[in-house]
Specification:
about 220 residues; alpha+beta; 60s Ribosomal Protein L30, Chain: A; Alpha-Beta Plaits; 2 domains; 6-stranded mixed β-sheet; 7 helices
């Protein structure tokens, strides 16, 4: 028998009519925002499936904008996301893709750029009840939910890199709940995704970056 929590049915505290189309959209965008340092200057949202069909009526557009600006699912400012984005100079665009098939019905691609010109692309899925998954970063397939503190390390796919990351976490007494390696191709760029049920201190990021084969480090803190 599969256990279903009442919170899976009711969903989280939220602004909007739908835990999947509103709260889930906020959570996906907020995770993307946490992965890119600095202020977001531009955002493009490409929506698929039911997201593409109903994003205006269900407030998915306002929710995505709110998440990108750092709003939580129950933040009342989500109702005024368009006005706030315009006032703060955030450039945004929504595009409904009705051609791509085979995606989860609640899927969005987010392309964001900060004031320094750094670009990040993320694909997220709203799985129901306000729960989400990030399934792609910069065209590399990954998987994490944001329910744990998550460290994402972009590095060369070379021997010793995973051991280096694990050692940095161990030296700061961070317990690893899950650790997965994703890569573009053998010997190319790899993404190590480490989830912990406790906060990951800043010194871990600094230690991981000390390896010259590490290209980028991102942290989504619970």
């Amino acid at each position: 028998m599969t256990f279903i929590s009442a919170f899976d049915v009711i969903g989280p505290n939220m602004i909007g009519p739908s835990s999947s189309h509103t709260a889930g959209a906020v959570s996906i965008a907020l995770l993307a925002k946490k992965m890119l340092p600095g202020k977001v200057k531009r955002a493009k949202f490409t929506l698929y499936g039911s997201f593409a069909e109903t994003y205006r009526g269900h407030g998915t557009d306002r929710a995505l904008l709110g998440g990108i600006m750092g709003f939580a699912t129950d933040d009342l400012r989500i109702r005024d996301s368009f006005q706030i984005a315009d006032e703060t100079g955030l450039e945004y665009q929504f595009y409904a893709d009705e051609r791509e098939k085979g995606t989860h019905p609640n899927t969005v691609d987010i392309r964001i750029e900060n004031e320094e010109g750094t670009v990040l692309t993320v694909r997220g899925v709203s799985t129901g009840g306000g729960k989400v998954k990030i399934i792609r970063i910069n065209q590399v397939k990954v998987e994490f939910t944001g329910e744990y503190s998550t460290l994402i390390v972009v590095h060369d796919d070379k021997p010793g890199l995973v051991a280096h990351i694990a050692r940095c976490l161990s030296e700061s007494n961070v317990n690893i709940a899950f650790m997965r390696l994703y890569r573009e191709d053998k010997g190319a760029v790899a993404y190590s995704v480490i989830e912990s049920d406790e906060k990951i201190p800043q010194q871990v990021l600094d230690a991981v970056r000390s390896n010259p084969r590490v290209h980028d480090v991102m942290l989504v803190q619970i």
